[in-house]
Amino acid sequence: MSLFERYLTLWVGLCIVAGIALGGLLPAAFNAIAGLEVAKVNLPVAGLVWLMIIPMLLRIDLGSLAQVGRHWRGISVTLLINWAVKPFSMALLGWLFIGLLFRPLLPADQIQSYIAGLIILAAAPCTAMVFVWSGLVKGEPHFTLSQVALNDVIMLVAFGPIVALLLGLAAITVPWQTLALSVGLYVVIPALLAQGLRRWLLSRGPSHLETALKRLGPVSMVALLATLVLLFGFQGPQIIAQPLVILLLSVPILIQVYLNAGLAYGLNRLVGESHEVAGPSALIGASNFFELAVAAAISLFGLTSGAALATVVGVLIEVPVMLSVVAIVNRSRGWYLRRPVPAATDPG
Q1: What is the pTM assigned to this prediction?
Q2: For residue 105, which of 229, 245, 235 has the smallest C-alpha distance?
Q3: How far is CA 128 from each of CA 52, 144, 163, 217, 302, rounded to the nearest angstrom?
Q4: Is the pLDDT of residue 170 over 50?
Q5: What are the backbone angles phi and psi of residue 123, rounded to the nearest 5°?
Q6: Do 174 and 312 contact (CB within 8 A), yes or no?
């Protein structure tokens, strides 16, 4: 592990502080950058995400995707967590903490809106950043790509009904443009670009691919830290203006992340899945598709609503919290491998 990676937590903390400070000192500049978006997808952040996920996508050999069926246990666990546990557990946590325990400390007219935002946040699994997390835990890249693609397909038909059910609405307006653009921008286009680059590098010899991956590694980490600066810079004024509200909203989000990550990780170990699949499965099970969540909350409740703020809190804590899950997965590898893992077989 490099010196940079060893002290990643320190760099993350410094970038969070820098983002908040710069957001307060240079509000016009950050507002201008925040305004560079299409269908609620911020283009500068999208560019940084590309720099983060391309190194992992370069490792994927599309010809090997046919073998991903041998990881059916991991796929089943991840689908269970994402679609049968995560949205409903967040509804429970939102009611318990925001609707009950923290109610006296929050604006009474925003309680239900806060809970709605938390539910929307949990109803869609992450599409882009999971490639970064999977790479950091040395996850199986073909499993990660296949799982993300499968979740995206399910999201098209399940996101709206699940949110409508949990919010008690007859129907919701799904921001299809944001959903389609995010999937294309964060999965389809970078995957195609990475495959084109991979073929070109391999045509020059396998060593060229390895050299490129080594050089892109630090670029990926710098892009991750730059993303943190931007995200916290965008929301710096909100953090300073409403620190208690943001702190209280983060509590159920934090519990939900660790609960679902731990459940997915433990279930994968129980069914005998390999660690290189269990790691990304836990991370996919815990992370959120915050671009879609923010867009849906704004379209349903408005830009200044409690629901929109709740989804923004999810954006703020996503990266540092997921990095802590990455650390837990990496440090617990020895414990995970103590249980003999049976050879993976096809379900048929």
Answers
A1: 0.78
A2: 245
A3: 9, 11, 21, 17, 25
A4: no
A5: -80, -10
A6: no
